[in-house]
Amino acid sequence: MFFNDCVSVLKRSGRIRKGLSPAKLLVRLRPWLFLGSLMVVWQFGAGRQSTHILPGPLSVAAGIVELAQRGLLLRYIVASLFRVTWGFSLAAVLAIPVGLTIGSYRRWEMALNPLLQVLRPISPLAWIPISILWFGVGDVAAIFLIFLASFLPLTVSAMNAVAGIAPVHIHAGQNFGLGRAQLIYRVLFPAVTPQLIVALRITLGIAWLVVVAAEMIAVNSGLGFLIVDARNAGNRYDLVVAGMVMIGVIGLLLDTGMRSLEQIESVRWGYSED
Amino acid sequence: MTPLGHSMKWEKAFWPLAAACLFLALWAGSVKWSRTEVFPSPFDVAKGMVELAGKGLLVDYVGDSLRRVAAGYLTAAALGIPAGLFLGSRPAAMAVINPAIQILRPISPIAWIPLAIVWFGVGDLAAMFLIFLASFFQILVSAMNAVRNVPSMYRLAARNFGLSPLKLIARVVLPAALPQIVIGLRIALGVAWLVVVAAEMIAVDSGLGYLVIDSRNSGKRYDLVVAAMLLIGLTGLALDSIFRRVEKLKSVQWGFQNDA
Amino acid sequence: MGPTQISFKEHPPAFQTSRKAKLRAEGINMVFTRDGAAVPVLENINLEIREGEFVCLLGPSGCGKSTLLNIIAGFLAPTQGQVRIDGELVQGPDSRRIFVFQERGVFPWLTVEGNIGFGLFRLPRSEREQRIARYVRLVGLQGFERTYPHELSGGMKQRLEVARALAVNPDMLFLDEPFGALDSITRLTMRRELLRIWEAERKTVVFVTHDIDEAAQLADRVVVMTARPARIRRIVEIDIPHPRDISSPRYLKLRDSIFEEIGLAHNV
Q: pTM of the entire structure?
C-alpha cells in the first residue's frame, strides 16, 4: 500500500493542481504527517535524555551525510548488496530445481522432508562458527551464511509449490500429448511461478536480515559492520542509527522491487484479488 | 500418473530413515576421509550431547532460550493481535500508520542490538526485547491482513443482528480472522526462535546461542557447537509441530479447508 | 447381475446400424481404497458408443460417472475390465481424445490464443495461427485473443476450453459437467453453442451431467446410471433431430421416461 501511494503520488504530480481538493491532499499527506510527528517526538526525546547517547533524527541525518561524504555510504551499501546478491542467487539457482524435483516425486519428499524440517529452524547465525571454520573470516563466510539462510526456505517453498499444482493442469498437459520434458517446461514451471516469486521475495527479505548479522560478526565492510564498528570505535550512535535507517530503506526497496515482479501479466493470475 | 499409487505405511517411516542414515554415513565418511582435526563426526556430536546432559547444561540452556522466547513472543502477541485487529478494522488508521510499519519492518532485529544494549544493558531484557521486536511486526502485519480479509458480508450480517462494535470484533471479526492470525503466529514463532539464537550470541551468557559461540571460543569444542545446532533444530521443530497441532483444532480448522 | 440396456425407441433412427462402434467399454469395475476400506464405485459397466454420437452419462452427484469418463479417457486404470477405442486398448491419455474439464482446466498463465494453440506445437507457425483464428471465431471469442483467463467470465472460459480441445482435431471429446459452474441462463446459451459446434465438427462426444434436462436436450443417447456403486440402469435413445422443440410431446415423453427411471415424481 505504501508503494502504491508513492507511485500514485508520483504519477499525479503533474496533475495535482487539477483534480485534488484540499481534503484529498490532506488524506494523502496523513501518513507523512504521522511519520513527521514520530520524528518530532523522537527528536524531543533524544534531546531530553541525560546521557546524550542516543541521536535524534537530525543527528542521524547528519550522520548519513557524513558517511556519504566520506564515501563510505555507497561502499558499504554495495558491499552488503554484493554479498546478498551472490548468496541469494546461488541459493535460488540451486534450491528451485532441487525443490521442484523433490516435490514431484513423493518418495523423495518422504525421505528428505524430516531432514529439512530439522535443519530449517537452525538460525543461520548458529552456523557462524562452522562457516568461519570452513571459510575463514571474510566475504565467503558471509555469502555462505546468506546462501544457507536462503536455500532451505526456497527449497521448501518450491516443494510446496509443486504440491499445489492443480492436477487438472497436469492431466490436460498429458491429454494433449506432452512428453515429460515438455510437461515440466510448459505446465509445471508456469504453474509454480507465482508462488515461487512470492517465496523469492520473502526469502530475499530473510537474506537481507541475515547479511546484516553476518557482517556484524564475520567481515569488515557493509552496513552490518558499520553498525558494530560505529559503536565500538567511539560510541557514534548517530552512525549506528544511520546504518539502521539505511538498512530499513534498502530492505523496503528490495521488497518493493520484488513485488513489482508480481504484476507481470502472465504471473498475476496466481494472486487473488485484493 | 494415476492416483492409485498408494504408498504403504511402512514407506512413510522407511524413506526418511534411509535418507537420515545415508546422510549420517556421508557425514562420518567425509570426516574420516578428510582427516580433519576439528570437525566432529556424528559420534562426537552424540557424545557431546551426553556430556551436556550430564553437566545439566542441556536442560538449562534449552530452558533459558525457551524462557526468553516465551517472554518476548507472548508480549508481542498480547500487543500485536489487538493492535492488528484495531488497525485492520479501521482502514483510515491503517493507511496512516502503515508506512511507518513498512519502514521499520525490514530492519533486522540484529541491527537493533546496539540500541537494545544501550537501553537494557547486556542481559535477558535486551534479548527479550529483540525477540519482541522480531515477533511483533510479523504478528501485527498478519493480524492486520487477516482482519482486512474478513468478508464484509460477515460484518454486515453481524450488524444486521444488532451487535455493538466491540461485540462485532469479538464474536465475528476475531473468529473469522483466526486461521490467518494463527498462521502469522506460527511464522512469528519461527522468527523468534531464529532471533533468540542471534540475541544470545551477542547479548547474554546462557542459552543455546551462547552455547554455540562459547563452545568455539573457549576451546574450539566443535562437537559441542554442532550438538548445540542440533538442539536448536530439534527444539525449533518441536515448537513448530506443537503449533501445527493447535492449527488442527476444530475452531481453526475451517480456515484451512479449501482443498478441493 | 447383468447390465440393463433396454433402448426405449419407437422409431429406430435410419442411420443407426451403419455407424460403427467407436468405443467399447467391457466389464469395467472400479474399486477405490480409502483409509484401508474398499469403496466400489463402478460395477460391471458395459458400454458401446458409435462414431459421431453424442452420448450423455447421467446420474446423481458422486455416483461415479466422472470416474467412468476418466477411465475412458485413460486418466484412470480400472480395477477390472478394459476400454477399446477403434479397436485399440486405452492405456493412457491421448491427444486424439481430448477431455474438457470445467473452466478450471484452462491454463491461467496463457492468453486465449496461447491456450487454444497449446496442443498445436507440432504444426508450422502459419498453420497454427490459422487454426487458432478459426477456433477463436468458432466459439465467439473474437477480440479477446490477448486476454488472460482471469479476466474472462465463466462462460467464456468454458468456451475457451472447448476451443482448445477442438483445435487439435480430436476424434472424441469428453466433457465432464462442463457447464456446472455456470448460471442457468448461461448454461442454456452454452448448450446451444455446444450443439452448434458439434454439428459443425461432428466429433464423437461423451458428456457427463447430473442435469436431466441437459441430457435430454443434448444427447442422442442418455446412459442413466444408478447411485454408487454405479451400474448402467438404462439407456434412453432420443431420436429427435436438432434443433429440438422442448415442448413437443415426443420430447416430453422421452424426458419423462428418464425422470421415471431415476425415480422422480412429476410434481415439485
A: 0.80
